[in-house]
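My main concern about presentation is that the manuscript never shows what a single data entry looks like. For the editor and my fellow referees, an illustration may be useful. For illustration, here is how one protein appears when written out as sequence plus C-alpha cells:

***
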Amino acid sequence: MSNKVLHEAQPAFVLHSYAFRETSLIVELFSRDHGRVALVARGARRPKSALRGMLLAFQPLTLTWGGKGELKTLHRAEWQGGMPQLQGMALMCGFYLNELLVRLLPRDDPHEDLFEMYRKTLQSLCALDEHAAALRRFEKHLLKELGYAMQLETDTDSGHRIKAQGRYLYLLERGPVEAGGSAGENRVELDAQNGQIGQILDGQTLLDMARDDYSNPITLQQSKALMRLLINHHLNGQALHTRQLLKDMQQL
C-alpha cells in the first residue's frame, strides 16, 4: 500500500504558476480545505497535456493531489465553470488579491471562510465597477483570518464607542485612539507616547468600515490609506508588485 496522502477533488483556485524543468509547472493554489498548497504539475506544459490551459487563475477548479512533502504532486484537474473571465482593472485587482494570499497566507493552513470570501470577491470584481470597495472588504477579512482583526468601533484608550464626528489615530499595534486635527485629513503620524506609527482618519470612516460600507468618498480614500499601512506592516517590508501596477493604472 502506498504511503502517499491523496487529496481528491478539492475545490481550489490557482494563485500563481511558473515553469519547472522542461515540461512541468509549479502551481501555488488556494484550496478550501487545505489552504495554500504548492504542487508540481508534471508535463503540464506539453502541447497534448490534459492540464495545459486548465490551470488558469481566477477559475474554480477541483484538484486531486498527493504527497507528504512541502511540494506535492498534482494528479487531476477539473474546471468547474460559472466564473466570468476578469478583464482590465478587475484583472489587475485579481492579481493583487492573489499576491496578498501568496505573501501573507501560510501554507497548509485551512481558511474555509476566507476561501468563500475570495470567491465572492472575484464575483464582485466581475459584476461591479466598485473595485476599491471589494478590495477593502477582502483585505479586512484577510487580516481577521490571519489573527489581526481590526478594532473599528471602540476607542482603545477610553473604551468608549467611536464617535462619527471624532478624529482618531489608528495605531498599528493597538487600534484607534482619539486625536486632534481637521475633518477629512489623511496622514500618517507617529504617536510620541509609545513610538507607534498610526493613520489619522475620521470616526465616520471607522464606523463605515465596521459595516463594510464604502459609499462615502472620504471613507473610501481613508480606508485605502489605512489598509495600505496595516498590510505593509504585516508584509515586513516586502513590496507588492501588483500594487505598483495598480498605481500606474490610476490605482485603487
Notes: The chain has six helices and nine strands. The mean pLDDT is 89. The beta strands are 6-20, 24-31, 35-41, 61-66, 71-79, 167-171, 175-178, 187-191, 196-202.
